[in-house]
User: What shape does this take?
Amino acid sequence: MRVNDVITSLEQIVGDHPSTSSGGRYDPRAQLLWLGVMVALAFVSKSWWYLLILLLVNIFFVFFFAVPWARIKPLVRLNLYILGFCFSFQVLFNWDGPALVYLIPRVSGVGPFWPITTQGLYLGVSMSLRYADIILPSIVFSSVVRFKALLLAFTSLGVPYQFGYMALTALRFIPVLMRESVQIQQVQRLRGLAFDRRGLRHNLTVAYSLAMPLLVNCVLRARNLSLALESRGFNSHPSRTVTERLCWQKRDSLLVVFLLLLVITSLGLHWRLPWF
Assistant: This one.
């Protein structure tokens, strides 16, 4: 997996462009409610059956919202690596419960060691499914929502537009800083800085060579942005005018009804079937 693919995917997500997916036609307040409900449902139960069904529901929304696979593929691959690490860590280092198999067998009366237990396997599956149930709706949400419309949604909910603008600016700077860090690394390598050497002193030198140019660029960018905002009279009025208006439509209400039914069903199953 290439870093440039992840950066390009993030740039497409935080870019203010019309979404080509059907999920982009929903009101951002409905999209925000959908994200909150789907993430909250991941903590209703510890049962891996429940978490697996919830994951299938999230996958259904991927197709229902017609999320472009090319846009989310690098992020999905990145999180699959993280998910695999979490699963392996739980399975290898949780030794509670009966042992299923030993990685180091008994040899000459010594051993066995390093068991794979039922509890470790269960926790590995449960944590991996819960992670997927949290991260997948987040990726879907970020790929279908327009962040300018999301800023309007926060403003309509009573959040001061200054905070919304700061959050939007921070999100847009993430791929910019990532791409700059890659460019700085390439420039330092061309200047003869060796990244393959080991040693604490050399690692500190490499970290300083990468961090200082990035920090200076961040300070200069923040200064230019603040001057641009001041010259345009930002924060001179308690409210601001906008060129777009949010419009709640019938499909948004249907999505809210579906989410309400999903919450009632999840809580009902958890109450009636404690093992679920």
User: Anything to note?
Assistant: Residues 164 and 170 are 10 Å apart (CA to CA). The first strand starts at residue 99 and ends at 104. The chain has nine helices and two strands.
